[in-house]
Specification:
Order of helices and strands of chain A: HHHHEHEHEHEEHEHHEHEHEHEHEE
Helix content of chain A: 40-55%
CATH architecture of the largest domain in chain A: 3-Layer(aba) Sandwich
Oligomer: homodimer
Mean pLDDT of chain A: 93
CATH topology of the largest domain in chain A: Rossmann fold
Radius of gyration of chain A: 25 Å
CATH class of the largest domain in chain A: Alpha Beta
Shape of chain A: elongated
Low-confidence stretches of chain A: none
Strand content of chain A: 15-25%
Number of strands of chain A: 12
Number of helices of chain A: 14
Largest sheet of chain A: 6 strands, parallel
Structural class of chain A: alpha/beta
Number of domains of chain A: 3
DNA sequence: TTGTAGGCGTTATCAG
DNA sequence: CTGATAACGCCTACAA
């Protein structure tokens, strides 16, 4: 079932059918009706590959996600779903590529096979080979997170440094003097993972300004590590009365540790950080936190990508989001 | 950069380049070398759309996931990642389509635009319009889960009825006499969601055989509902000493309810069910449960799909997996 | 072992 | 307003 068949049955030329469909040149109302009738009857839909070949665009985005071995966090997951949704709004499809390094086959297929019009890159590192690969290939792309020296590039990110600073100041205002940052894993920090490093910077800076005693602790991305990490913190620094975190995956373990130590939150201990709202709300008690606006970021990323695709010479834009900190019930005045 | 350019620089015809790449006809070693050198130098990769158009196959699968509004569970997520990974092994890409009903645009684009060679359909209902749509379109597909009367179709599923039965018998062996099934949401049951219905059937049957008092309770897919649900159960049926569940999303709430009621697991209460292994292990205490083998299911689904694509007249096959129940620490003899 | 040429299904240019 | 016709880049008979 191709456009020629439709043309034949409607008694017009193929180009007329094409134009009737795209509206790129006027077609008489009567002809359009006839064509539409035939199309409806035969259930015709243009062949995407042929169209892509002729148009030079695939109407498809590539979305590079962390490899399957890495457990996706809640925000990441929501982000993926939201990207697909946002793309669908613009009648675009999304091709998934789970890849870490740049020698990945599926990544290469996407970059170089002209299967996509642009790429959204999740979870980038401060120095990321994939970013270089993409700019070298001349393929439009938007990163979630930004490299160390973004220069002129397209990205959307959350201001981890700023948000963590605000969390610390919030705790300082409540009288806390000894605080800790439960960070992402050692490996991520070593690899140069922006959010982890920027959170550390914001944490130490704000703590310094307010004269707090502060410790930055890395914690693997799973509940067991969260539990162990929290217990170590309590042991090493018994005076700590509040924690800030960006490690969502560790939260269930932190919850268990709090229970086990019979620490009442927020009376005996305060907890806050940058956390997906759903997780913040599922915590007990609900966490005062900066909710990562995953849906909004996804929409923004798609918009930026489309802008770039439609006008390759456009000046690169970016967005550094600083969502509000939602006050819930996990932070309170220091009593310890 | 196209095949013609390579041919020119290598001093051969385009077909020779094509054959050198595909290996579908012998090419002299010297020529192959020359061609490969040029390709390496220019970084050429064939245009996927052109190839798809010529070959009549896209080397791409469609993966239909629940819409973004529905929160993806842990198993579902792992499944998505695993499908992409399994597809990559066969040099295939995966196009995502988040859709519930069958009037979905992205679903239609995939089905009818010949963008994919086949489709993997997650989370199907006992009577699912998308299944009809796909078979009508003549597009190869594999469902995760099976419709009410699968007849001759391709699917892979977990034997929920059998597994839940085994859980119940396990509890009966431990002396429990009053058990409850914490099921998925009302809406899913009403919509005809197979796992929920089959779990109910297996639960009631096994309970009947062993003469247990049994209740089937629906619970929305989130922690808050899990908490409320568990407390209602305790209130309505104080004699219940054990629960079986397939509702992963509700688990954190159940955990909280257990804590709140100061119920020691497994001394005072036993809990088991069909649960992703990671979640089972993150529970406190770790759950005795039938681990859903998401990775294996993904690999199987991809294999079945490829088999079907490569031989459209192949006899439909399916796989009903019955993973072992892993004994962890959440079930014990009844003391209540 | 290699080259020529037609076709895959669209879009877009150029005439009418 | 509408029809021919040439791309788009690759694959694959058919010839040599």
């Amino acid at each position: 079932m191709n456009i020629g068949e439709i043309a034949k049955r409607a008694g017009v030329s193929r180009s007329t059918v094409s134009y009737a469909l795209s509206g790129k040149r006027p077609v008489s109302a009567a002809t359009v009706r006839r064509i539409n009738d035939v199309i409806a009857e035969l259930g015709y839909r243009p062949n995407a590959s042929a169209r892509a070949l002729a148009e030079g665009r695939t109407r498809t985005f590539g979305l590079v996600i962390p490899p399957a071995s890495t457990r996706l966090t809640d925000v990441q997951l929501e982000f993926v779903a939201s990207v697909v949704e946002a793309a669908a709004v613009h009648d675009h499809d999304v091709l998934l590529s789970p890849s870490g390094g740049d020698h990945d086959r599926s990544f290469e297929r996407i970059v170089t096979g002209r299967r996509v019009d642009g790429v959204i890159l999740m979870e980038i590192l401060l120095a990321d080979p994939r970013v270089d690969r993409l700019s070298q290939a001349g393929l439009p792309f938007v990163t979630i997170g930004h490299v160390e020296h973004p220069g002129a590039s397209w990205w959307v990110d959350v201001d981890y440094a700023g948000l963590i600073s605000r969390c610390v100041r919030h705790l300082a205002d409540l009288g806390h003097q000894h605080v800790v940052l439960i960070n992402r894993s050692d490996e991520l920090v070593a690899a140069g993972y922006g959010p982890a490093l920027r959170s550390t910077a914001g944490f130490l800076e704000a703590a310094g300004q307010r004269g707090l005693t502060a410790h930055n602790v890395c914690c693997a991305d799973d509940p067991a590590a969260g539990l162990a990490c929290f217990e170590q913190i309590r042991e090493r620094w018994p005076g700590v009365t509040a924690a800030v975190t960006i490690n969502e995956a560790a939260l269930p373990g932190v919850q268990r540790a709090l229970h086990r130590a019979a620490l009442d939150v927020p009376r005996a201990f305060s907890l806050t950080g940058v956390i997906a709202d759903r997780l913040a709300e599922d915590f007990y008690p609900p966490l005062t936190a900066a909710d990562v606006p995953a849906r909004q970021m996804a929409r923004l990323a798609v918009d930026l990508l489309l802008e770039q695709i439609n006008d390759p010479s456009a000046t690169p834009r970016h967005a550094l989001l600083e969502p509000a900190i939602t006050l819930r019930s996990s932070t309170g005045a220091r009593h310890g």
